[in-house]
Amino acid sequence: MIDAHSRISIPFESHLFNQWLPRLDSYGDLSDPARQKRLVSDIVRLGVVRDWSPRPTPEDVARHVKGPGFGAVANAVMEWAARTAGKPRWGEKTPQHTMMHDEVLATWPRAQVIMIQRDPRAVAMSWKQARFHGNHVLPFAKAWVRHSQALDAVERKLPPHQRIRVSYEALVRDPETELRRLMAFLGEDFEAQQLEFHRKDSSYDTDQRNLARLRTPVSADSIDRWKSGLSQYEVRLVETICAETMAQRGYDPSPIGAKPITEARLGFARRVEVPVQRVAGAFKNLKGFVYLSRDLQWAVEQLLSGVFPEP
């Protein structure tokens, strides 16, 4: 919706921080232009941004680098995306970056943060159906709690003019009202075309299920879809893990969840069910194999160049 605004570009996830910060030791001092240039090349060749359309080249990104360090590179990637879209502002939306908010805010201290909260049962169902996850809801429930706690930390850290909370349920029930509130927070005018975001063709390399969702207008029907999309056991699992945080966020438990899963049963799910379903899901995740091959290529290149980090 925000990407449909005439002044703001929101490209698909970049995974800049979660994918590349752990690897920075391999590049050494990024005040050295040659080392920084190698990082730019690796991000564009082997990172998730390789799947953007249009796809940047190392030269494209390098033209936007305005200083030393990783932050200048991350900023250049996003600046390239905005300029390519013909827009003066940009946003970044990688979910995993929620867990790296300290690093993100250190890089972009003036960032305005939109914190979206959604019912964990709906989140678990959505992630369960995604191509890039296993099918067991237990890891999703735990991740929802961690991400919720991270959002609380961001809220404590930032002043009100830099952060805003958005309820997913409120957004899909009344998208125009919530969008107007969001755009006012961002200091921009609401544009009616933002409600028509689904009419914009997406050339992102994603699966057909996700592509169909991108081409569908928001609907309140998605709020309760988990009631038919999750089994009773899955609902009980999610509500057992998320009970305290759900109550804090105003999500009511279901009658199904009135009987929590026992610790012994949770242990069995963690040790047996999750690994089995994760392996089974991996064989259906063809894109995951592509990402794995790129990670292996990166590791081999570092080894051959003699800069592989110490264990």
From TrEMBL:
A GO biological-process term: sulfur compound metabolic process
The GO molecular function terms of this record are: N-acetylglucosamine 6-O-sulfotransferase activity
InterPro entries, alphabetically? Gal/GlcNAc/GalNAc_ST, P-loop_NTPase
- Pfam families in alphabetical order: Sulfotransfer_3
Question: What's the protein here called?
Answer: Sulfotransferase
Q: What is the source species?
A: Novosphingobium pentaromativorans US6-1
